[in-house]
Structures are given as C-alpha cells and as structure tokens.
C-alpha cells in the first residue's frame, strides 16, 4: 500500500500535493488529517497543515450501506451522541491547553528564553500553568506585570480553541502565593492609614483578581469600606474609613 505524509498551507493544499505525487484520484485514497493549519495568535504559533494519504487496496471493499445496516439495532443513539459530545469536549479542552502551552513557549522564545518548561493542573474550568526557566524573572516582570499580561493573552488563546469556557492562571516560582501575601499585608497597612488620617486611601491600578484579594483581606474589618473606581486597565481600589 502506497502512502505519503504531506504538509501544506491548508489541509486541501496538502491533500492536492499528495494526490499529485501519488498520481491517484481522491476517491482512490484514504486521508488522515494529522494536523490542521494554524494561523497562530498575534503572529505566534502558526503551523502548516499535515496529512497522511494512503492509496486504497483494490481488493478491500469499501464500506457501503449494506454493511452499515448490520449494526446492532439495540445501540442507543442518545447514549452514543452523549459520549461523542463528552469526548469532543475533552478533546477541545486538551487542544486548548496544548495550544496555550505552545503560544506561551513561542512568546518566551521571542524573549530569548529557550529553556521554558510548562506543566499544568486542571480543576473543572480552572487551568493553572506553572512556568520554569533559568530566566523566569523575565516572564514575571516588575510587580508581575509581564506575567499578568501573558496570562490575559493565554486566556484568549485557550478560549479560542475550547468550546467550554476556561479560566487560566499562570504562575512562576510561586509568584501568585507570594504576591497574595504582599497584597494582604499592604491592605492592612493602607486600611490603618485610612483610619489614622480619617480620609480615603487609593491604591495604584491593579488587575481584577488582585483587587479581589484586597477586598477579601479587608472584608473582616468593620471600620472601613472598600470599592473600585475607574476603568480597566486603570481600575483601582479605594479604602475609606466608616464614620
């Protein structure tokens, strides 16, 4: 049996090139799409389509309606459809996770970071990615700004490929845990300052999940109130003493 693996800018162009090389017609082959073309995201992660084309054995009959009719009538269509839907859901999540990893790696390579390793943990719709590199500080950036920006992009990439919404978190060297401790300590200091001065205290702009950390840290205090002002990405948190 003749077969060939062929790449192309699209699946169809790869198939056409393979048929031309094999000198056969489309109805004479079996086509397996190894990988569809990927346009990438923001210029990163683009890949060519890849197909495997096998010339059919003339002695092997094609599956026709007569053969399909021998399938057991007891098969429950709804059960099969549910199983297919579940498998498809798992497939899209797995692809979304892999595409996200590929995207993060491509960004890192653009920053001359070539030793990046990524592991992940999934709990329902929440997917946490853990980054390891000798140059991981570059991926974190000042006050986590680079990591936060990369996380926002990773969120977009993941949900581009998943048919179920995924919440993405990126972490490196336990930065998220260390940052949470820093924010909680800062929250207490700023709340004490608001009480001491009797006036409102304003934080610098923060992403929503960091503002949430501060809100939660101060929720136990009965002498102040917290709220957010402004519009993202310049939205900030305010503390005011209760009178």
Give the % helix.
40-55%
- Please state roughly what percent of the residues sit in beta strands, choosing from under 5%, 5-15%, 15-25%, 25-35%, 35-45% or over 45%: 15-25%
- Count of beta strands: 9
Q: What is the CATH architecture descriptor of the largest domain?
A: 2-Layer Sandwich
State the end-to-end CA separation. 85 Å
Family: Belongs to the KhpB RNA-binding protein family.
Keywords: Cell shape, Cell wall biogenesis/degradation, Chaperone, Cytoplasm, RNA-binding
Protein name: RNA-binding protein KhpB
Domain R3H: 177-243
Key terms:
243 residues; alpha+beta; GMP Synthetase, Chain A, domain 3; Ribosomal Protein S8, Chain: A, domain 1; 3 domains; three-stranded antiparallel beta sheet; three-stranded mixed beta sheet; 22% strand; RNA-binding protein KhpB; chaperone
Secondary structure: elements and pairs:
Layout: E1 3-8, H1 11-22, E2 29-35, E3 49-55, H2 65-68, H3 77-110, E4 117-123, E5 126-132, H4 136-140, H5 145-161, E6 167-172, H6 175-197, E7 201-202, H7 208-218, E8 224-229, E9 236-241
Tell me briefly what this model is.
The protein is α+β, with helices and mostly antiparallel strands and 243 residues long.
What would you note in describing this structure?
This protein folds into three domains: about 55 residues, Defensin A-like (2-Layer Sandwich), CATH 3.30.30; about 90 residues, 2-Layer Sandwich (GMP Synthetase, Chain A, domain 3), CATH 3.30.300; about 60 residues, Ribosomal Protein S8, Chain: A, domain 1, CATH 3.30.1370. The strands form three sheets. The chain has a three-stranded antiparallel sheet, with helices on one face. The protein is elongated and about 90 Å long. Helix 6 packs across helix 7. Helix content is about 45%, strand content about 20%.
């Amino acid at each position: 049996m003749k077969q060939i693996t062929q790449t192309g800018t699209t699946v169809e162009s790869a198939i056409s090139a393979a048929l031309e090389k094999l000198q056969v017609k489309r109805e004479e082959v079996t086509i397996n799409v190894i990988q569809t073309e990927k346009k990438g995201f923001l210029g990163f992660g683009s890949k060519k389509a890849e197909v495997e084309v096998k010339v059919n054995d003339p002695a092997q009959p094609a599956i026709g309606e007569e053969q399909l009719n021998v399938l057991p009538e007891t098969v429950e269509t709804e059960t099969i459809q549910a199983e297919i839907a579940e498998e498809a859901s798992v497939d899209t999540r797995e692809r979304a996770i892999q595409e996200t990893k590929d995207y993060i790696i491509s960004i890192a390579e653009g920053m001359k970071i070539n030793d990046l390793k990524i592991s992940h943990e999934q709990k329902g719709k929440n997917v946490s990615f853990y980054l390891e590199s000798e140059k991981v500080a570059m991926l974190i950036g000042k006050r986590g700004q680079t990591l936060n920006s990369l996380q926002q992009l990773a969120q977009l990439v993941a949900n581009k490929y998943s048919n179920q919404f995924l919440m993405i978190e990126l972490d490196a060297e336990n930065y998220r845990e260390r940052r949470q401790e820093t924010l909680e300590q800062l929250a207490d200091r700023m709340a004490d300052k608001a009480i001491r001065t009797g006036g409102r205290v304003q934080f610098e702009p923060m992403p929503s999940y960091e503002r949430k950390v501060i809100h939660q840290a101060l929720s136990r205090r009965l002498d102040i109130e917290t709220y957010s002002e402004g519009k993202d990405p310049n939205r900030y948190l305010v503390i005011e003493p209760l009178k």
